[in-house]
Write a structure and sequence with these properties.
The protein is built from nine helices and 14 strands. With 274 residues, the protein is of the alpha/beta class. The chain has one domain: Rossmann fold (3-Layer(aba) Sandwich), CATH 3.40.50. A hairpin with a 2-residue loop joins strand 13 and strand 14. Helix 2 runs parallel beside helix 5 and helix 5 packs parallel to helix 6. The longest helix has 16 residues. The protein is globular.
Length: 274
């Protein structure tokens, strides 16, 4: 048993249970249809999951439902066997870049300290141990020299690392990242991947929505493919098959064969949002 502290009470979480279990989940709306419908999957501790699908497939809606930002109309979500409504303290969410108000006057240091709020409690001052923890994470993620910078002044890769540091400060067990590679250069991508390695070493389970098929195949244990419904969930070898991908991407999938090597190109922009 792993004893973790939530915002309101102490929970005894059974780590022999799946870290995340989503059962027949339906949530959100896009016009007259549900954004996601009847989605079920189970994730074990420490797994790295790439969530892929065309634009409008429901990836962001799935993340928001798991973290509690939107209600779900049907289904069940549990974390280590505990209903997610009682275990949101153990999940962190890094939204898409455009979903954050980068003009808000807050420093890098204070953003990371926000991850300690559940430990500090409301209307209390941060303790020396909280400041020490924040400084450790800034050092670990090479952000110390940016501690007093306003968050909006940072590069795209630096911003993502700040939010990863905040997740670590929270002592999260599950991290959801929505399109962290969008709008960043190769160097920043490498920095983000290095930060994800740090998270994995800490035993944190990662779900990351991406349009980068190459990274999904190379750096993740499993791939979750969706288009409103769950199309496939399994290892990269199991999911990245032309007949399976075509169910999500349709005519946007092209398969090229050259000297025995197969390369697949997909049009991820088949919808809008999500």
């Amino acid at each position: 048993m792993l004893q973790l502290t939530s915002k309101n009470k102490r929970e005894n979480l059974d780590i022999t249970q799946p870290v995340l279990d989503v059962h027949r989940l339906s949530a959100g709306y896009q016009g007259n249809r549900r954004a996601i419908d009847n989605v079920s999957f189970t994730i074990q501790s420490r797994e790295r999951i790439a969530v892929i699908g065309p634009n409008g497939s429901g990836k962001s809606t799935l993340f928001k439902a798991i973290v509690g930002l939107i209600p779900f109309t049907m289904g069940h979500i549990s974390i280590y066997g505990v209903d997610c409504r009682s275990s949101h303290a153990f999940v962190s969410y890094v939204p898409q870049h455009e979903a954050v108000d980068w003009s808000f006057p807050i420093s890098v240091y204070d953003v990371v300290m926000m991850g300690r709020l559940r430990h500090i409690g409301w209307f209390r001052w941060a303790r020396s141990s909280d400041h020490e923890r924040v400084q450790e994470l800034l050092d670990e993620l090479n952000l110390s020299h940016l501690a007093q910078r306003q968050i909006g002044e940072l590069s795209g890769g630096q911003k993502r690392r700040v939010f990863i540091a905040r997740a670590l400060a929270q002592d999260t067990r599950v991290l959801l990242m929505d399109e962290p590679f969008t709008g960043v250069d190769t160097l920043a991508e490498n920095d983000i991947m290095d930060a994800l390695d740090v998270l994995s070493e800490r035993g944190i389970t990662i779900l990351l929505a991406t349009h980068d098929m190459q990274k999904a195949v190379q750096y993740f244990d499993k791939i979750l493919l969706m288009k409103q419904e769950l199309i496939a969930f399994g290892t990269p070898e199991e999911v990245m098959q032309p007949d399976i991908l075509s169910r999500a991407f349709g005519g946007g999938l092209q398969v090229l064969n050259h000297n025995g090597d197969t390369t697949m190109y997909v049009d991820v922009h088949g919808g809008s949002g999500d």
